[in-house]
Amino acid sequence: MVRRVKDEACFVNIGLCLFVLVVATNVVCSMEFDHLDFPRDFIFGASSSAYQVEGAALEDGRTPSIFDTFAHSGQVPGNGDVTADQYHKYKEDVELMAETGLDAYRFSISWSRLIPNGRGHVNPKGLEYYNNLIDALVSRGVQPHVTLFHSDTPQVLEDEYSGFVSPKIIDDFVAYADVCFREFGDRVLHWTTINEANIFAFGGYDIGNSPPCRCSYPFGYYCTIGNSTTEPYLAGHHLLLAHASATRLYKEKYRAKQHGFVGFSLYVFDSIPFTNTEVDVIAAQRNYDYFVGWFMEPLIHGEYPLVMRKNTGNRLPVFTENETKLIKGSFDFIGLNYYTVIRVKDNSISLTKELRDFAADHASTWRYINDADPFDGNPFFNAPWGLQSALEHFKQVYGNPPIIIHENGQLSDHNADYDTMLNDQSRVEYLQGHIGALLHSVRNGSNVKGYFVWSFLDIYELMYGTKYTFGLYYIDFNDPKLTRHPKLSRKWYSGFLKAEKVSMEGEIRTLDEAKAHSTS
After folding, report:
1. What InterPro entries is this protein classified in (predicted)?
2. What is the pLDDT of residue 379?
3. Which among 55, 45, 141 has a CA at the least distance from the CA of 90?
4. In a 3-state reduction of DSSP, which class is residue 51?
5. Are 427 and 437 in contact (CB under 8 A)?
6. Which of 262, 432, 465, 467 supports an S-S bond with 78, CB 3.0-4.6 Å?
């Protein structure tokens, strides 16, 4: 099927029609816009997470999390012991946020800083820090958007009962959420329970290349513990139940007084068939069902996708009737972390294997569209149309739920020279293209409520350590002062937020061009 779409803003919309391959033509177009072109209540901000930005890993009663353990395993360069040291420099950072013009700052709370033993005693120093940060944000007119969990289960709970593999995590997570709602909910209106649940469950429990590094031979990366055939599904199941239970707590105990919103976050991408053959088109849909439908189907319909139930069989947990009622509709918004597109090829032969993991169950292989090595290259191919496609999918398939883009950004080599780091023109082009694409989707009816750049500062990155960073501000991690240096992208984003018209001009890459690029 060939479909050509051109709107009044001169955007090429390479739409995702349930992942049917489409082809568009080249156009040269110009589009001027600023943040005032978005709805009046649309929120623009920037993001971070606790372990990646705070530092002070061993100070004031904080105990290690699984993120600490991973960072000190040597798999990626550096660690988050100091990183951007926002724990000590939060006042300076809040001033920079206000000067930049952010509506909101999205950050996470370190569970093991607030409750060092994972349950029970609340650390007064942790409580003081988050109260101070939230108060500073509010005083400067920056909304605090808080994530409760960002891949950082307290190590003590991981050691005690294997964290999210066990249903015991649910009660401990809800008790932790209760403390956060009680202590900070008078000033925090936007809560996200879990960040990137799909990536945490897949990366942490199938291939084992991220915290808590659980997997089994022959599927993972040199893990010493785990079971790749079952644990991704157990972790995903308990993430959903922990989220839904915390959401129920908020609705029953806090909403009437605090009037806040609770959401859930997923990593999303545009899934493009490797060819326009039927098997690859179906594989692309199946891949999306496994990575996104895995969580969205229970949240919308109360059960896992049919293809997962069929392919995974009795290794996939089953919701009880009460759990289905608990999970279905248990969100006020969905947070989406979008960076790029992938190309998907059918691999149905994997279903003939007796021993299968999550990757074999979804029976597809995929790679980034630019064919970069995701651990040594730049997999963040600039594809704004992929964001449009993902949003269109959520609109058509999941009933157009309220969405906040929680992460979007481009990495750069942190070892480049100083001038190169500051003159990040490619990041400007990336952000400009994606915000322009987002505006197109909003005008086309997508129910998007906000957009957050990842990240405000250069920080310790989960998969790249200190080798690659995403920040609007450059930080030399070898500088004892950790001075914040504004990049060109910060200047651009600030101008956009302050209603300076920005222009997106030039040739829009089409799907055909992207395909040619990925195979060259």
Report:
1. GH (IPR017853), GH_1_N_CS (IPR033132), Glyco_hydro_1 (IPR001360)
2. 64
3. 55
4. helix
5. no
6. 465
Ranges assigned E (strand) in 79-194 = 104-108, 143-149, 190-194
How far CA 275 is from CA of 272, 284, 350, 495, in Å, comes to 8, 10, 19, 41
Of 323, 392, 407, 461, the catalytic one is: 407
Q: Of 158, 196, 297, 392, which one is the catalytic site residue?
A: 196
pLDDT of residue 462: 85
Residue type, 183: E
Q: Is the dihedral of CA 272, 199, 399, 312 positive or negative?
A: positive
3-state secondary structure of 150: coil
- Known active-site residue 196: yes
Give the chain's end-to-end CA distance (angstroms, integer): 24
β-pairing verdict for 473-474 and 485-486: antiparallel
Locate 169 and state its tokens.
């995590």
Tokens of 4: 């050509």
Q: Is 297 a catalytic residue?
A: no
Segments in the chain below pLDDT 50: 1-30, 372-378, 505-520
Q: What are phi and psi of 39, to 5 degrees?
A: -55, 155
Q: What is the CA radius of gyration of the chain?
A: 22
Residue 481 near residue 488 (C-beta atoms within 8 A): no
Please report the beta strands in 283-434, taking only residues with DSSP state E, as ranges in sequence order.
333-346, 364-368, 403-407, 412-413
- The values of phi and psi at residue 414, to 5°, are -75, -10
Q: For position 9, what pLDDT does the model report?
A: 32
Q: For residue 36, what are the contacts with CB-CB under 8 A and spacing of at least 6?
A: 499
Write out pLDDT tens, residues 114-166.
999 999 999 999 999 999 999 999 999 999 999 999 999 999 999 999 999 99
**Which is nearest to 163 in space by CA: 229, 221, 218, 211?**
211
Q: What angle do CA 456, 461, 467 make, to 5 degrees?
A: 105
The 10s digit of each residue's pLDDT in 54-91 is: 999 999 999 999 999 999 988 888 899 999 999 999 99
Q: How far is CA 291 from the centre of its chain?
A: 13
